[in-house]
């Protein structure tokens, strides 16, 4: 029992070095911007953010920052900025 748990811990350490194994499908977070906190998330293959810029452009600095931080762990649709697909 104990040795199998040690094996799992070892495997977890290795997995943690390989973030590309993990793909977020749905999540929510609070983003502390310079001026305000914004609720940001990704669900049903769409980003959302409560900031004003996002409501106008469909993307924002908070989305862009998360795209960089989580890059390897996002589905490829989540890395495409919606600014390029919407007027
Ligand atoms: Zn935002």
Q: Supply Rg.
A: 17 Å
Bound molecules: zinc ion
Beta fraction of the residues? 15-25%
Distance N to C terminus: 58 Å
For the biggest β-sheet, the strand order reads 1-2-3
Shape: elongated
| Helix segment tally | 4
Kindly list the characteristics that best describe this protein.
87 residues, alpha+beta, 3-stranded antiparallel sheet, 4 helices, elongated, binds zinc ion
Short description:
With 87 residues, this protein is α+β, with helices and mostly antiparallel strands. The protein has four helices and three strands; from the N terminus they run H-E-E-E-H-H-H.
Report on this model:
- The chain is α+β, with helices and mostly antiparallel strands.
- It has one domain.
- 39% of the residues lie in helices and 20% in strands.
- The protein has four helices and three strands; from the N terminus they run αβββααα.
- It has a three-stranded antiparallel beta sheet.
- A hairpin with a 4-residue loop joins strand 1 and strand 2.
- The longest helix has 15 residues.
- The protein is elongated and about 55 Å long.
- The N and C termini lie far apart (58 Å).
- The model has no long low-confidence stretch (mean pLDDT 91).
- Zinc ion binds next to helix 2.
Q: Which SSEs are present, and which pair or pack?
A:
Elements lengths: L1 H15 L10 E6 L4 E7 L2 E4 L2 H6 L3 H9 L6 H4 L8
Antiparallel strand pairs: 1-2, 2-3
This protein binds zinc ion (ZN).
Zinc ion binds next to helix 2.
